[in-house]
Design a protein that fits this description.
The protein is mainly alpha-helical. Helices cover 54% and strands 5% of the residues. It folds into 3 domains: 4-37 and 61-98; 119-189 and 278-300, Cytochrome Bc1 Complex, Chain D, domain 2; 191-275, Cytochrome Bc1 Complex, Chain D, domain 2 (Orthogonal Bundle), CATH 1.10.760.10. The chain has 12 helices and 4 strands; from the N terminus they run H-E-E-H-H-H-H-H-H-E-H-H-H-H-E-H. The strands form 2 sheets. The chain has a two-stranded antiparallel ribbon with strand order 1-2. Helix 8 packs across helix 9 and helix 8 crosses helix 11 (263-272). The structure holds heme C (2 copies).
Length: 303
Amino acid sequence: MIDYAASDFSENWHYYIAALSILGILFSLWVLRSQTTAKLAQGEKAEVLHYAWDGDLQELNNPLPRWWMYLFYGLTFFGIVYLVLYPGLGKFAGVLNWSSAGEWQAEKNAVDAEFNKVFAPFKGKDLATLAADPTATGMGKNLYMTYCIQCHGSDATGAAGKFPNLTDAHWLFGGSADEIKASIADGRMGEMPGGLAGDEQGAKEVAHYVLSLGGKPHDAAMAAVGKDKYAACAGCHGDDGKGMPAASFPNIVDDAWLYGSSVAAITETIVKGRIGGMPAQMANLGEDKVTLLTAYIMSLSKK
Ligand code: HEC
Ligand code: HEC
């Protein structure tokens, strides 16, 4: 949030701005007053002013209608009261000390207090217990419907190549309670750089080597060539390809694939690189909501 009160500009200028506002109000009062007193004397006729527009459009110097004057006085009075009560005069906060940020904070505090009441019975329980408790997973589901469906879908099955399926038995970053919670709390924004294995052919060879590491069908001759180039990958995915889920480097020798496990898909991953897109939730939602979401995801997944 920008602290306007602390910025140089407001520090030096808010007196001028406040003075201008006050002078503006005094000026309109003065103008109003000059018009109030300019009444026609008894029997006096309004003069026709000596200029005319559009050939024959004339103006008389009649005083302003009273109702209009009083309306204006009323509005000016309203403005003054408003500036006393609410912020508006330079950086004077107003005697009510109201601010939109304060109003938002008060509403948020009320909602948080309400949530804390509902969450109280679950406090301190471990994730496995919560995952088996339909009330907790029901609350987790509501949170999921608000914060997660736009990517993982309402049934949490995701979209191949984009958003992982959260209901199957395969996990990119580990399926233990703590690992799932870490995925949600801290996000998974890991970046896999492209082009590390040279051209398309080089990438294809490494792809076969990756498949060989996972004990999957592969071309042994290609894999043998790809082995050396895999050195560029081992720093993140490990010599054995098991990765480091805690550091968001996925296991590439299991059955959990986001971008696909065909030679073509792995080659594409290696050539182009990939960037994870799971945003961290902790700062926004807080510990309790992340806990409920984890419990819900655990309850969905097929062990
Ligand atoms: C902006 C889209 C987006 C939103 C919103 C989002 N996710 Fe994700 N999520 C992803 C992507 C993309 C990945 C895969 C990241 C990767 O491969 O690096 C992911 C990965 C995950 C994983 C790890 C899956 C695995 O196989 O290890 C979990 C768990 C998860 N998300 C849960 C959630 C929950 C719960 C929410 C709601 C609070 C949520 N996500 C909101 C895009 C999103
Ligand atoms: C700097 C660390 C780093 C290096 C080096 C690296 N990767 Fe990755 N790799 C990642 C990360 C992080 C992801 C997850 C990206 C995502 O989920 O969007 C990933 C994803 C992958 C995937 C996709 C897995 C899936 O679920 O579809 C494959 C395959 C892969 N890497 C293979 C390799 C190969 C082969 C190399 C060497 C040529 C390599 N990586 C080098 C960090 C790295």
